[in-house]
Automatic annotation (TrEMBL):
Domain of life: Bacteria
Keywords: Aminotransferase, Transferase
MF terms in GO: transaminase activity
Source species: Deinococcus lacus
Signal peptide from the UniProt entry: none
Domain Aminotransferase class I/classII large: 7-318
UniProt KW Transferase keyword: yes
Gene3D superfamilies for the chain: Aspartate Aminotransferase, domain 1 (3.90.1150.10), Type I PLP-dependent aspartate aminotransferase-like (Major domain) (3.40.640.10)
Region (Disordered), start-end ranges: 379-404
PANTHER family: AMINOTRANSFERASE, LD15494P
InterPro entries xref list: Aminotransferase_I/II_large, PyrdxlP-dep_Trfase, PyrdxlP-dep_Trfase_major, PyrdxlP-dep_Trfase_small
Name by which UniProt lists this protein: PLP-dependent aminotransferase family protein
Length: 404
């Protein structure tokens, strides 16, 4: 946020959530040591100390073994996706993605010549993920190289796959020979019920590559993440010419994270979850206020978050003007409509928005802007645009079973 402008278009931590003191102490700890190897190019697999500390941390947090030899340090999930696609796929290979997904992932795949095929989502409450029957049919039809999925506190829908759904998808991968690219960016950010075991627990089967990052649990500017895969897969990734030339990803940032883990990160992670829970509750309270009769968001439905960064809003019909800008006049907010998260440009919709848990203004500013621009959806919009009362959940889901 700068000046009067509140950017709700990206999921990044607000300034009070950034661990300034923790990172300053980590830097002092690292630079006080005699070994300055982290200022060199570094190993292709990444800082050995970080891989060791990370293995212990993930084993504790995930509840399943994560050996050091199965970890590679990345420059974050976007860089990891690029590396995996460049190394393990060929142009023309097919990648299945969730029909609604992180909006900047498909361009990474498309830039590498991959054929993108969307798989519909299904949901029951906060549990949901790829529709299993549709997924198997698509696998049989396209014989994909990868399935890209965000299994915990999905961006943007907030859904989390149950353990049984994850197990069945892992079994499909083993049966048909495709690889699951599990973007587990929010796996550790639960503040409701604990997330189901991560796909990391299925790495030994050979058909899973689990991706994680410190961008959401420490700071995005570190540009440090990890790839969890079988050692033979990591050997292929480490042979990428870019790594052979420049060394491992971000040795300095990796060294800082290593010190954070060495000094203890569990309590900071608990505090972060608690603060995100408070902010999610504040946003939910504001949504309840503004969705009452006569308010700007009358008739809106949304998902109550149990983790992650986002709330997904389902707006009633004709709630927005046809040319409503994504960045209204100041003071206002930038936000992203549902159509931006469609894996392919099919069945676009303007009836959904994604809001991160930044502060109560996350809801108040867009609502005020909507009301000023058009009047509230329940009154003036009804008169000017033939607005109809929102259909029931059952009726709305007839068009799209998951509502996404």
């Amino acid at each position: 946020m700068s000046g009067d402008f509140l950017n709700l278009g990206l999921g990044y931590p607000a300034a009070p959530l950034l661990p300034r003191q923790q990172l300053a102490e980590a830097a002092q700890h690292r630079f006080s040591q005699d070994d300055l190897y982290f200022l060199q190019y570094g190993d292709e697999l990444g800082d050995p100390e970080l891989r060791r500390e990370l293995a212990a941390f993930l084993t504790q947090q995930y509840g399943c073994p994560v050996p050091q030899e199965q970890l590679m340090i990345s420059g974050g999930i976007s860089q990891a996706l690029e590396l995996v696609c460049d190394t393990l796929a060929q142009p023309g290979d097919t990648i299945l993605t969730e029909a609604t997904t992180y909006f900047l992932a498909p361009p990474i795949f498309a830039a590498r010549g991959l054929n993108l095929v969307p798989c519909p989502l299904e949901a029951s409450g906060s549990e949901g993920g790829p529709e299993l029957a549709a997924l198997e049919a698509l696998v049989q039809q396209y014989r994909p190289r990868f399935l890209y999925t965000i299994p915990a506190h999905h961006n943007p829908t907030g859904l989390s796959q149950s353990e049984e759904r994850r197990r069945q998808i892992a079994q499909l991968a083993e049966r048909y020979g495709f690889t699951i690219l599990a973007d587990e960016v929010y796996q550790l950010l639960h503040f409701g019920p604990q997330s189901a075991p991560p796909y990391s627990c299925w790495v030994p089967g050979g058909q899973v590559i689990s991706l994680g990052t410190f961008s959401k649990i420490l700071a995005p500017g570190l540009r440090v993440g990890w790839i969890h895969a079988r050692p033979e897969t990591l050997e292929r990734l480490a042979a990428n010419p870019t790594l052979l030339s420049g060394g491992g990803m971000n040795p300095l940032g990796a060294a800082l994270v290593s010190s954070v883990l060495e000094r203890g990160m569990a309590s900071g992670l608990r505090d972060l979850r608690a603060r995100l829970a408070e902010q999610a509750q504040a946003l939910s309270s504001a949504l309840h206020e503004f969705s009452q009769a006569g308010q700007p968001l009358e008739g809106t439905r949304w998902s109550e978050p149990e983790g992650g960064y986002f709330t997904w809003l389902h707006l009633p019909p004709n709630c927005l003007p046809p040319h409503w800008p994504l960045r209204p006049s100041k003071p206002a907010s930038a936000f992203i409509p549902a159509c931006a998260f469609r894996s392919l440009a099919t069945r676009p919709t303007r009836r959904g928005f994604v809001l991160p848990f930044i502060r109560r203004q996350s809801c108040k500013r867009p609502c005020a802007a909507w009301q000023k621009r058009r009047g509230n959806c329940g009154q003036q919009a009804k008169a000017r645009s033939g607005w109809a009362a929102p259909r029931s959940a059952t009726s709305a889901q007839a068009d799209n079973p998951a509502g996404y």
